[in-house]
TrEMBL record:
It comes from Microbispora oryzae. The active site is at 132. It catalyses: N-terminal N-formyl-L-methionyl-[peptide] + H2O = N-terminal L-methionyl-[peptide] + formate. Its EC number is 3.5.1.88. Fe cation binds at residues 89, 131, 135. PANTHER family: PEPTIDE DEFORMYLASE (PTHR10458), PEPTIDE DEFORMYLASE, MITOCHONDRIAL (PTHR10458:SF2). Its cofactor is Fe(2+). This is Peptide deformylase. It comes from the Bacteria. SUPFAM superfamilies: Peptide deformylase.
């Protein structure tokens, strides 16, 4: 097993769009194995390469006992109304929030050997495809929330034990110059 550390919210790699895979080689197969092992260990429903610090367009999924991966995915979303459902993310440990998603999605891409794949998902699988493809575009699930939910999420993130976003406590002395404490 090759379990990798999962990058947490605040890491710049999570906001950087991933590059397309061009080499379907041994390195890619190792990446898919690392993603799968890490996702299963977490455990999670999906994991995108940027979440383990790799800027390539690859994600794995494990939903309804279906395990797989997609390389260089593109999504076709249904015209059906968005469904708001609880969503979490391994890069935001312990937090879940209502997040709107299309209820049906078709993911097209390739497997790790370069063979074309087309996967259709509804409900949780569709949500997973959208969530993981967003990661590959540098978009996080909090970006999909309405303003009220996003504010609640940001407050919870700042208060989370794992977060590095807590405002630093600065002790101000009465002896300051130019706004800087002496």
């Amino acid at each position: 097993m090759a379990i990798q550390p999962i990058r947490l919210f605040g890491d710049p790699v999570l906001r950087t769009p991933a590059e397309p895979v061009v080499d379907f080689d041994k390195e890619l197969r190792k990446l898919v194995k690392d993603l799968t092992d890490t996702m299963m260990d977490a455990p999670g429903a999906g994991l995108a390469a940027p979440q383990i610090g790799v800027g390539l367009r690859v994600f794995t999924y494990y939903v309804d006992e279906q395990l797989g991966h997609v390389v260089n995915p593109s999504l076709d979303l249904s015209d059906e109304l968005d469904e708001e459902g609880e969503e979490g993310c391994l890069s935001f440990p312990g937090l879940t929030y209502p997040t709107p998603r299309a209820i049906r999605a078709v993911a097209k891409g390739f497997d790790m050997h370069g063979e074309p794949v087309t996967l259709e998902g509804t409900e949780l699988m569709a949500r997973c495809f959208q969530h993981e493809t967003d990661h590959l575009d540098g978009v996080l699930f909090i970006d999909r929330m309405d303003l009220k939910q996003r504010k609640l999420a940001m407050k919870a993130i700042r208060e989370a034990e794992w977060s590095g976003l807590a405002a630093p406590v600065v002790k101000v002395s009465p002896h300051t110059t130019g706004g800087r404490a002496l």
